[in-house]
Amino acid sequence: MIKDIYAYAGNILRINLSDGKIRKDSTLDYSKEWLGSSGIAIKILYDELKPWVTPYDPANKLIIGAGVLLGTPAPGANKMNISTLGPITGGWASSCSDSFFGLELKYAGYDTIIIEGRAHHPVYIWIDNNNIEIRDASHFWGKTTWETLEMSRKELRNPNLHIISIGPAGENLVRGANIIQDRGRAFGRCGTGAVMGSKNLKMIAVKGSGSIKVANENKFMGILLKIREKFERLNKLENPMHEYGTLSVFYVKRKTGTVNYKNFQYYDIPDALAMKIDPIKTIEKYKIAQHSFPGCALNGCGKHLYLNEGPYAGLTTENNQWEVFENIQTRLAIQEPTFMVKANALCNQLGVDVDLIGGAVGWAMECYQRNIIDQGDTDGLELNWGNAEVVLELIKKICYRQGFGNILSEGCVKASSVIGRNSEYFALHNKGQDLYEVCRGALGWCLGACTSTRGGGHTTGAVTCEAIPENRKKKENWIKKAKSVYGVYNPHMVLEYEGKAKMVLYMEILHRINNCLGVCHFNTTWSNPEYIDLSELMNLYTTATGNKTSLEDFKKNAIRQLNLEKAFNLKFTNYDRKDDMPNLRDMQEPIKGSSLEGWKIDKEKYNKMMDEYYEIHGWDKQNSFPTKKTLIDLGLAEVAEDLKRIGKIGKTRKKIKY
């Protein structure tokens, strides 16, 4: 612990795998302006990566950051972040996960690890406080993440050791490979596992024996206790996240008509199928234990299940969340109720993103349905909707890049470009990244996902609070609170275009602050207007770190980060306004098979909503580029000059109000 450092551990650890050099920098070089975690990561990546660097180049960097509030008892403080130049979009790539690893990292004295270069053979990194070693990992190479965890615990003689690792997908540079913490928590989206694999880095294990201190313990604990009291009151009334995790939205999603079925052809599943695969019933039937991470104000969303019957009998694993259910189970029309559990476990073992699996296989199944591809393309596999065993086989083929799986391992966009035959229309994506988000039917969710700097993804600006309680009194109270928090008159009107740009801006700020501080989104006003808000986050931050700030400047930090992410993309890609648009299917096909039957996105109204979005960000409406004045006002004058040199500086601007 560095003297007079509060909340932060104090050190940034740089490890160069090419030459084995290790050095420490001070977190204070970045923390005031960039807060922590993903904020520090984008600053380092923007400053240090040359424009010629590619995702698998040794010069690319993999940056692992623990949130500022990790190691304190702050509610919801259990997240860490991994960022890089990503192999899917070719731009900003950033993923978060619940993390015991992040706690150990801070207890060892480090806020951030920067991985540089490429090892000459498979290696792993062992961090034991001040002792840092790069060790041979040849005996780990080829192993699943579950096998790697067990082997590392034996080798390092610690049954409670926490690691982050890649599986065969990362080793084989599958574009959607991810990094897994222990057995069941994934750094999803963006392909960070492929970058880790390109560096011949199998895993990082860490053990720390230090502690984290806060600057003003009395004030910090006072704020914390008030928040805890609020959650205790709210949790007594209702806490579906604790009971079922994000799968608790099943009945709401069906009622609102926003369930992905057969690759977005339909927006709900048949009633008979719904009764058969009801995920809440599956949890109730097979749950053996509850699982949580330190600080969660909702008392944990994780469940451990044991399948004692059926085709996957004998499997014990942490349960999946909603994304797996909707993106693999219902998207692919699988009728076996426990399939979601098996598919999630297999993806975690092999280290592949469930969104790439859903996107690529969903595209392939629809192409098979429409006779665009046949068994001659698919290694003889029949890609009929609902074929569970074929999907499991494809997951393996994708992760080992075998046959047709080698094409799918690139994601649906690149796969469609390989196949051609007018298959591109059925590859649902954003900025090249396979899309899980149901965009028709919830415009704040859609706008936030489509404008996301990391390419799709609902955790960097999308609006979840459009789904509201059904109880009349509760609904009225919710709307009143939501109006005051989000600053719009219609936060609950999912099909209303007006006001959504402003709500997305709020969420973009909230999400970046959450990620920097390491606070789970579900503990904040992202999911419920009564949960932890920006003012409470600011107060936790200032009393923990001792860094005084105003709410306006706190928000400005997040907007600065957003603009640097945007500039990073402009530096490495050719993304512009067209890449913030929904897919053609969302604008051309009316919804089928749900309570929203016949509705589709109005292209003209959506474009007006995007105009408003760009205006309130101070970005050029014609091309989405930040203007010079916007960047200078955010303290990014050098970035403005960079964008001017490459001809990507915006010209028109409207005054921003955060």
From TrEMBL:
A Pfam family it matches: AFOR_C
Cofactor(s) the record lists: tungstopterin; [4Fe-4S] cluster
InterPro entries for this protein: Ald_Fedxn_OxRdtase_dom2 (IPR013984), Ald_Fedxn_OxRdtase_dom3 (IPR013985), Ald_Fedxn_OxRdtase_N (IPR013983), Ald_Fedxn_OxRdtase_N_sf (IPR036503), OxRdtase_Ald_Fedxn_C (IPR001203), Tungsten_al_ferr_oxy-like_C (IPR036021), W-dependent_AOR (IPR051919)
Transmembrane segments: none
All residue ranges annotated as the Aldehyde ferredoxin oxidoreductase N-terminal domain in the record: 8-210
UniProt KW Plastid keyword: no
Entry similarity comment: Belongs to the AOR/FOR family.
The protein, known as: Aldehyde ferredoxin oxidoreductase N-terminal domain-containing protein
Originating organism: Candidatus Sediminicultor quintus
